[in-house]
Design a protein that fits this description.
With 301 residues, this protein is an alpha/beta fold. It folds into 2 domains: 6-185 and 280-300, Rossmann fold (3-Layer(aba) Sandwich); 196-277, no CATH class. Helix content is 30%, strand content 19%. It has 8 helices and 11 strands. The protein has helices spanning 16-23, 36-45, 96-107, 127-139, 244-250, 255-263, 268-277, 281-300; strands spanning 6-10, 27-32, 52-54, 70-73, 111-117, 141-149, 160-168, 196-198, 205-207, 221-224, 239-241. Helix 1 links the parallel strand 1 and strand 2 (27-32). Helix 3 runs parallel beside helix 4. The two termini are 13 Å apart. It binds S-adenosylmethionine (SAM). S-adenosylmethionine is lined by residues 11, 13-17, 32-35, 38, 56-58, 74, 76-77, 96, 277-279.
Length: 301
């Protein structure tokens, strides 16, 4: 049997990485996030008693960190997102990547998994991404990446994100990508009929294939009251806002997490924000499974 690898969950939010990595057989060593509501839900939902917690990544003294094998981080994406001002490293949130690099440099875990918006690839004509890849390479990692869309991983959401995986050492890195739809299960509907509408009623667009647009922190998601294949005139459709539970489902989170959030009094506004900020669990699971497979093959050889 291979040794159970541990991970450290940076920018942990509500634990999208954690659920995906645990499902693939890995164990948490600790987590870091400075949003009090996300941490409140994380600590009430997961058993974190034996784990290390850090509030602000910029204040982490790496000597105080536990050892771990995988670092995972969906670093803040607003500075690179086409819906933001795109100030990149000029925005303090953009410099969070360098905090991740600092931890990698000092701790040298065997693997890392990073996630960010598609816009990271072409920000500043590709120079930002080049800086990121070169920095990771200089620390000693072989680096591979792929743009993955959540809609191919069992959730009806059109969410494209770049996943970057590093392996310590530059010779013979395990092949993680491409992931060619290994998890392309049939798209699961989040409500009982295949009709999901994106945008506000005034500029209604609707998707008869039942695939929702990319979830945002404000939950611009609305859903129609008639199954898509029964719509005769789009004007007849009445829309309602997606519930927090439906938004969590769109990201692959289990329903009982939202039940726990309600139980501890977290507001709908915060829940919409958490769901929109999160990483899709199913995609993390697919990437983490590739690492697990590489480790098993390595143990056999
Ligand atoms: C894109 S979200 C990551 C969400 C997470 N992957 C999930 O599945 O929920 C970025 C997270 O970084 C956190 N964050 C931002 N600045 C931080 C800092 N200086 N230290 C720790 N966490 C920070 C935010 O609170 C937010 O939860």
């Amino acid at each position: 049997m291979t040794k159970q690898l541990t991970f450290f969950d940076i920018f942990s939010g509500i634990g999208g990485f954690r659920i995906g990595l645990e499902r693939a057989g890995f164990k948490s060593a600790g987590y870091c996030d400075n949003n009090k509501y996300a941490v409140q839900l994380y600590e009430n939902y997961f058993d974190t008693k034996e784990e290390f917690y850090f509030n602000d990544i910029t204040q982490i003294n790496t000597k105080e960190l536990p050892d771990f094998d995988i670092l995972c981080a969906g670093f803040p994406c607003q500075p690179f997102s086409i819906s933001g001002k795109r100030q990149g490293f000029e925005d303090t949130r953009g410099t969070m990547f360098f905090e991740v690099a600092r931890i990698l440099k000092d701790k040298k875990p065997k693997y890392f998994i990073l996630e960010n918006v598609r816009g990271l690839l072409n920000h500043e004509n590709g120079r930002t991404f080049e800086t990121i890849i070169n920095t990771l390479h200089d620390i000693g990692y072989s680096v591979q990446w792929q743009l993955l869309n959540s809609k191919f991983f069992g959730v009806p959401q059109n969410r494209e994100r770049v996943y970057i995986v590093g392996h310590l050492g530059k010779d013979y890195p395990p092949k993680i990508f491409p992931i060619n739809g290994i998890a392309q299960e049939k798209v699961k509907n989040i409500v009982s009929y295949p009709f999901i509408k994106k945008g506000y009623q005034s500029n209604a667009t609707y998707s008869p294939d039942g695939i929702m647009g990319c979830l945002t922190t404000g939950c611009a998601g609305f859903i129609g009251d008639i199954p898509a294949n029964e719509v005769k005139n789009p004007k007849d459709i009445k829309f309602r806002r997606l519930t927090p539970k439906e938004c969590f489902r769109l990201q692959g989170f289990p329903d009982d997490m939202v039940d726990k959030a309600f139980e501890i009094g977290i507001s709908h506004t915060q829940l919409y924000k958490m769901a929109g900020n999160a990483v899709t669990v199913n995609v993390v699971y697919a990437v983490a499974s590739q690492i697990a497979k590489a480790e098993e093959e390595n143990a056999k050889s």
